[in-house]
Predict the 3D structure of the following.
Amino acid sequence: MKVTNLSHGSFIIDFCGKRLLIDPFFTGNPKASEIDVEALNPDWILITHGHGDHVSDVENIAKKSGCKIISNYEIVNWFGSKGVEGHPLNHGGKFTFDFGTVKYVNAVHTSSMPDNSYGGNPGGFVVWNDKGCFYIAGDTALTMDMQLIPLTCPALDFAILPIGDNFTMGYEDASIAAEFIKCDNIVGCHYDTFGYIVIDKDKARKSFESKNKKLFLPNIGETIEF
Ligand code: NI
Ligand code: MN
């Protein structure tokens, strides 16, 4: 599994021959000027919640690449009204796609759409097949529900957790989340994009080290492999 950091909460994950684009936010993102949006060409777009810093480029990329989206029912309907096709999930539900199984799991956050319409409840995704398993937390606080993930899903190879604080959990809470989900390899996201969420990266790494976890902070555009 190859994970490319596209800044903020945006990633592309090469998973068994399919390209999964997570929460594309390039338009209006001060850190995304180097991203070649045309070259992303995803097979699926996974959307954790409706906020603009997670959906700003869904419509243009989906229409260009012809890919479908996976998100909660309300978000899939909202994009459906714009001519983007998708598969709706809701919390606790899973479905097996052409690349593997996706389960939509709880997040503690909010989820209005860019036009302020209702975006359902925010979530995260656990994605797996017989080659591997990973968790994308989306924007969330630390929550006890994270302890359900190792009880209900295969063992995680890696997880993408927000660490920027202010709008989501900070790195201290995220290192506890790594324990709750029983995952040793954490990719940090949702930090340094704008002023409220600038972090001390050394302190963040040490917070995870203190729990015998590894925090990966790939540069924007950098790919790491699990
Ligand atoms: Ni958000
Ligand atoms: Mn966000």
Notes: Residues 171-180 form the longest helix (10 residues). The domain at 2-221 is CATH 3.60.15.10 (Metallo-beta-lactamase; Chain A). The chain has one domain: 2-221. Helices lie at 52-55, 58-65, 73-80, 148-152, 171-180, 201-209.
